[in-house]
Amino acid sequence: MKGLSTLSLVFIFLCYTSAAIFLAGFVRKVYEYAVTPSPLKIPTMPAPTTKGGVVLRMTGEVLFFTSLFKGNKWTWIGGYIFHIVFLLIVLRHLRYVLVPTPEVIYFIGPFGIHAGIILVVSAGYLFARRIFVDRTRYISSGADYFALILMALIAATGLAMQFLFMADVSAVKDFMVGLVTFSPVNIPDDHLFIVHLTLVMVLLVYLPFSKLMHAGGIFFSPTRVMVDDCNEKRHINPWDR
Amino acid sequence: MADIKTEQLTGKIKVPKINESAATEDRANRAREEQNVLLGFPPSKPDNWQEIALNKMGELLTKYKSLKLFLDVCVKCGACTDKCHYFLGTGDPNNMPVARQELMRKVYRKHFTTAGKLFPGLSRAEELTEDVMDEWWNYYHQCSQCRRCSVFCPFGIDTAEISMAAREIMNSVGMGQKYSNEVLGKVVTVGNNLGIEKPALQNSLEFLEDDVKEETGTDVKFPLDQKNAEVLLIAPSADFFSSPHIEGLIGYGKVFHEAGVSWTMSSYASEFANFGMFIGNYDLMKKVAIRIRDAAEELNVKRIVVGECGHAWRVAYSFWNTLIGPFDFLDPEHRSPAHICEFTLDLIQRDALKIDKSYNDDLVVTFHDSCNVARGSRMGNSPGGQFEIPRELIKSVCRNFVDMDEETIREVTYCCGAGGGLLTDELMDLRVKGAMPRAQALHEVMERNGVNTMAMICAICKAQFTKVLPEYGVDMSVVASVHQLVSNAIVLGGKKGV
Ligand code: SF4
Ligand code: SF4
Question: Domains of chain B by range and CATH?
Fold first, then answer.
């Protein structure tokens, strides 16, 4: 801890705190989803009749957003691109915390840059769709706009660090590696990085308490993960044995 | 009824512009005090209703994963917004599934989430006030629990689960819905939704036997309470009196007669429908269902076959085993309930019935998939059997069959507009408007293919369409039971049966 500036100390504290809130919040929610009982069999039919079938169904939902595709192609295309590039960006960021960085992450590298731009554009598209379609405008609230704006800002600050102000990547990496190895070092003297990091912390803290929990919740949705074997295997309602 | 504005039939389903408060006048009637009490609910709203309602909501949140998760994970993507027939028919934004959910979600946020307690403004968190309760009353009784929205939701959010929970909460503070609670009162006391006592039932079945004898010259029996029969048939009680339901019942009778399978109905369990599901009350659903199990044991039958009723088939197929199973007293081969369509089609495929399709040659038939059958159950051995088996059955008894627009059938079928306990007169305006998508799709095949018959396997659908299609200028005679078509084509005395 010796030699750390006050600013660094504050940020190191905030980083650990937000990570802890994120983890605890996420785990708590997932735990709640896992333990809350499903009294009855309610898969949306036609549903798979085997566990393997459910794995396929869920793979489709998670990797391709199959239901959303059926529901609205315009939303699907925007939402799908948004999520894919978000995933690429998260993966790309692993190079800041993993030493040595696995080869695959370098491979994503170049895509990551485009991904940042696409993330901003697709967030803008989703934002516009919320406003211009009367039905989505009606159902959208501050939280929905907030989530999109937050993501766009995170992406925009990230891009600016890379293209406009050329952040000192190795200083950033040192700081991040310091955090994950619990031997923190000084935060780089880079305002943009500090803003970027702060926004990410806001996202982390916000996620478990918001609709963004869909990221964990989707794996527990009874209408999607239940097997249609109602009569082959008796489903027991835990509160009515 | 004359003043209900119906949309012109063009064969196309248009998504309306939002029309705020368009359906606020469509209000279900409140149950009378004694109707609530009979079911174990408080007679009317107590002074501390808010506390009771919130406690109930808290309890449901720990008992139903669906409710908990669905209230959390909606991202407001909007994919469901144009999928509900009530929104398409009325344009009232609260009939968009996600908006319907929001009525409960805003209360959930306020009372059950950290974010809602800290920042009520950011995500619309609201106290459970009289006004909110009033919105609940309105719009949770404008959901037929058809699950269409859940098909398109990236998280499978099923608004039906939420409206069931809302009704359960409202019942817990004496806000019962008249139609559902009245019907449930009759089934738990008399044994069927219509409140028909055994002598009346017996009488009408005897009349039916006479009618069929007169028409066909054959002694087709409609047995009641016959011990040791092979099959217990459970039909929705509408099959005993309404038309075209009763033509379906005649069809079941002819099938059993020709197959030479001994069968019986039960006066104790003379109802297949189970409105316990509609009001989201697990105990009542079980209480209604268990009469059927008891009757089967008492009559010492080998198997249970059920008649044409949509939501009841969902309860039977998906819930019976949990609620009232295991059925280890039945024939090991037949422990799961069989749908009458499965039963009949199997006989036809085994060549146990003689069919003459030409009796149906004057008909051009289409099939309306009932919502609960389509999205809440299965028939046969593979997923989607609930779509194929009724169609195969229809095609095996008549030559002219056409499907409606594929956007309106099978998995994505539209509800008739009166399911979920909404088949009641005071909601007629809503029912007519909610039937719009089906009416449009039907109109298209009537114009293009000369369809003159829409067959279906649900008592509620049949009652609804015979009532509302005339509002669109379509004659009620298009509505048919699937087993009515079977009845037309079956040649009595033609085969030796199984
Ligand atoms: S489709 Fe599902 S996630 Fe999207 S708005 Fe409707 S309920 Fe919410
Ligand atoms: S379950 Fe059916 S009636 Fe209810 S909101 Fe969904 S689509 Fe509408």
Answer: 42-175 (1.10.1060), 185-489 (no CATH)
Chain A's closest residue to B113, CA to CA, is: A209
pLDDT surpassing 80 at residue A149:
yes
β-sheet with B453-456: strand ranges across: B365-367, B453-456, B479-481
Which parts of A58-193 are beta strand (E)? Answer: none
- Any chain B CB within 8 A of the CB of A95? no
B157 Cβ closer than 6 Å to some ligand 1 atom: yes
Give residue-wise pLDDT tens across range A166-200: 888 889 999 999 999 999 999 998 999 999 999 99
Give yes or no for a contact between B241 and B270, defined as CB atoms under 8 angstroms apart: no
- Ordered DSSP codes for B349-400: HTT-S-B-GGGGTT--EEE---HHHHHH---SSSTTHHHHHHHHHHHHH-S-
- Which are the contacts of B210, defined by CB distance < 8 A and separation ≥ 6? none
The partner residue sitting opposite A45, judged by closest CB among B323, B336, B386, is B386
Q: Extract long-range pairs of B244-247: CB within 8 Å, 24+ residues apart.
A: B244/B462, B244/B466, B244/B479, B244/B480, B244/B481, B244/B484, B245/B308, B245/B459, B245/B462, B245/B463, B245/B481, B246/B208, B247/B480, B247/B481, B247/B483, B247/B484, B247/B487
Average pLDDT over residues B141-169: 98
A19 — contact with chain B (CB < 8 Å)? no
In CATH terms, the fold of domain A6-228 is: Fumarate Reductase Cytochrome B subunit (1.20.950)
CA distances to A107, B214, B252 from B210, rounded to whole Å, are: 82, 6, 16
Tell me: the pLDDT tens digits for A120-133?
999 999 999 999 99
Rounded Cα distance between B72 and B450, Å, is 48
CA B119 to centroid of ligand 2, rounded, Å: 30
Is the pLDDT at B1 greater than 70? The verdict is no
Q: Which of B77, B286, B322 sits opposite A75 (nearest CB)?
A: B77
* β-bridge mates for residue B339, sequence order: B306
Reported ipTM: 0.94
Place A1 in a pLDDT band, splitting at 50, 70 and 90: low
Calculate mean pLDDT across residues A54-67: 97
Whole-number pLDDT of residue B220: 96
pLDDT for residue A2: 64
Is the predicted pLDDT of residue A101 greater than 80, yes or no?
Answer: no
Provide the token pair at B281: 């009350």
| Cα–ligand 2 centroid distance for B156 (angstroms) | 13
Is B384 part of the contact surface with chain A (CB cutoff 8 Å)?
yes
Instruction: Give the residue extent of every domain in chain A.
Output: 6-228
pLDDT, residue B496, reads: 65
Residues of A in contact with B321 (CB under 8 A): 230-231, 234-235
Inform me whether the pLDDT recorded for A3 exceeds 90. Answer: no
B371 CB near ligand 2 (under 6 Å): no
**Confidence at A107, pLDDT banded by 50, 70, 90:** confident
